[in-house]
Amino acid sequence: MMTDDRMAGGLDGRGHPEREAGRLSRRSFLAGSALGIGALSLGGCGTTDTLLMAEAAKTYGPMPNEKFPIPAVDVSKVNPKYYRRTVQYASSEAPGTIVVDPANYYVYRIEGDGTATRYGANVGRQGFLWNGDAYVGRKSEWATWTPPKEMIRRQPEAAKYARGMPGGLDNPLGARTLHLYQNGAYTLYTIYASSDAESIGTGITSGCVGLLSQDMIHLYARTPVKTKVVVLPA
Questions:
Q1: In the chain, pLDDT over 90 holds for what percent of residues?
Q2: Which of 108, 191, 195, 234 could disulfide-link to 102, CB 3.0 to 4.6 Å?
């Protein structure tokens, strides 16, 4: 669990991370499709990197049918090792379990056949990392975000959202949110959707975990309430 400082300083009432200071913007608030894809080739018709980028462009393409249409990710801003893919992953956890590996900026969904779906992530910055077991207590789509009073004191420009910021592309909670609980109590930590491609593979949050919107929607659809979440030590 987190310290009182974490609860007061870096998270909204719905568990969203925010950065310590700066202008009022999504970035300041936030602070491979198949196994072996990297080995694909076309017999001289393209390089491995070209194929990887082309496949990623499909995976992270626009989602026009969302309530708020989601634009394509600029995959050139994401290290290819963080693209969604299926990987070999030995685990004793039940299929469907989510494993967060903050040391390596990955989130895994256990598939139960010796593999896992792996997503690149952003994680907590130094001083806000945590580990332990939790579970998905509730889920939300395009949720309203309300800044905590402590944040408003530090960033007065956030006061205009004191009664809540409606869901949308600029909302810090993003398109989907998994709210993490322990022993029946909300931890204030979440796994949320981020549109900030450059944040993937970095530690910028107050303990929450962010996936690219396309990845978060993919994970969210496969994650029922009560799903176990294991956060490994960093």
A1: 61
A2: 234
